[in-house]
Specification:
There is one protein chain. With 349 residues, this protein is of the alpha/beta class. It has a single domain (2-336), classed as Alpha-Beta Barrel (TIM Barrel). 40% of the residues lie in helices and 12% in strands. Helix 1 packs across helix 8 (203-216) and helix 2 (26-40) crosses helix 9 (242-255). The longest helix is centred in the N-terminal third of the chain and has 15 residues, at 26-40. The radius of gyration is 19 Å and the shape is globular. It binds 5'-deoxyadenosine (5AD).
Length: 349
């Protein structure tokens, strides 16, 4: 029934989003979960997250890591520390890892290429997703050649004027989009995405986000609520709504049935069992945090972030348990998109 989203224009999509803003239609949620089940079964893919640096040369108005924030504790893991986080996850059975950081020049170059090659040399059956911002095409290529499998680069909003409301003048939506298309061409599994409820966002803009996803056809989409961070210009803004975030997750699943769709930490921060609700709305990925516990407090994109005090083992066990309690099965494999699936036996715990 909701497959009409494939043909809808902007006004129709905006009206559909508006109708579901306060409570997603149960039929929409059912359809989203059905599509997820059809492509992935009841499996929830786990990706170990390593937040390798909180240094950032960008100044996004919403983000706690923005360079103008002088009050955050900055840290940078060295290559051995990052490798050890990945090894730790690997020993626990994980085969999919996300290296995410601020736009830290220290790692936006040859160092990251070497690190990716080292990880792949030691753990060739693990998949690596990178998330380190906009980079020159040559570097995207070198990272791919070193063995990176995927790249996450949220577009944040698909409306130019709204992008300008969220970012300082040097940053543009067109440059962001160029990077995403380039990553696709280079053979990455590509992730786009956006925040729900960021200041100035309208239903029309969210409709524009869906149209952009329909055009780009990304393999992964990261969607979470905007949450204010007290040391940013958006400190006093209202957080995004749970129901609208769930609606956008479900619409994204219906629009891109085989997409890899995480139930994000921001969603888990916004509401008790937010990530469980995300799975019910069609999400199929969770990202347990492998960042060393002493550093986690330095990676505060927004206030109230969950999981800061849990050890890696604790966090992972809790996650496995809540996945099973909700009637799903943890999947610790590489977690490729179906267009990229490799001939390896999936690894289940
Ligand atoms: N609230 C919610 N999400 C945020 N991000 C950054 N700051 C915030 C915030 N205040 C998201 C952005 C970015 C990702 C790493 O985290 O979408 O792409």
């Amino acid at each position: 029934m909701y497959d009409m989203v494939h043909r809808m224009g902007k006004a129709e999509l905006a009206a559909l989003i508006a109708r579901n803003q306060n409570a997603p239609d149960p039929a929409l949620l059912r359809e989203a979960a059905l599509f997820r089940d059809r492509h992935y079964g009841r499996r929830v893919i786990l990706r170990g997250l390593v937040e390798f640096s909180s240094h950032c040369r960008m100044d996004c108005y919403y983000c706690g890591l923005r360079k103008s924030n002088r009050r955050i504790r900055r840290y940078r893991l060295d290559a051995d520390q990052i490798l050890n986080c990945v090894r730790d996850g690997y020993r626990r059975g994980l085969r999919s890892f996300v290296l995410q950081g601020g736009e830290d020049a220290y790692y936006q170059g040859e160092r990251m290429v070497l690190l990716v090659a080292r990880i792949k040399g030691e753990m060739p059956d693990a998949a690596i997703t990178l998330s380190l911002g906009e980079l020159p095409a040559d570097l995207f290529r070198a990272l791919k050649e070193a063995g990176a499998d995927r790249y996450l680069l949220r577009h944040e909003t698909a409306d130019d004027a709204h992008f300008a409301r969220l970012h300082p003048p040097g940053q543009t939506l067109s440059s962001r989009k160029r990077c995403l298309y380039r990553l696709r061409e280079l053979g990455y599994q590509v992730g786009a995405g956006f925040m729900v409820g960021s200041p100035g966002q309208t239903h029309e803009i969210l409709a524009e986000d869906l149209l952009f996803l329909r055009e780009l056809q990304p393999h992964m989409v990261g969607i979470g609520p905007f949450l204010p961070q007290s040391q940013t210009p958006f400190a006093r803004e209202t957080p995004g709504s749970l129901s609208l975030t769930l609606t956008m997750l479900a619409l994204t699943r219906v629009l891109l049935p085989s997409v890899l769709l995480p139930a994000t930490t921001a969603l888990g921060t916004l509401a008790q069992d937010g990530r469980g609700l995300g799975l019910a709305a069609g999400a199929n990925v969770l990202m347990p945090n492998l960042t060393p516990i002493g550093q986690r407090g330095g990676y505060l994109l927004y206030d109230g972030k969950i999981g800061i005090d849990d050890g890696t083992e604790e966090g992972l066990q809790q996650m496995l348990q809540s996945i099973r309690a909700a009637g799903y099965e943890p999947d610790l494999s590489r977690g490729d998109h179906q267009d990229f699936r490799q001939e390896t036996t999936p690894y289940y715990l």
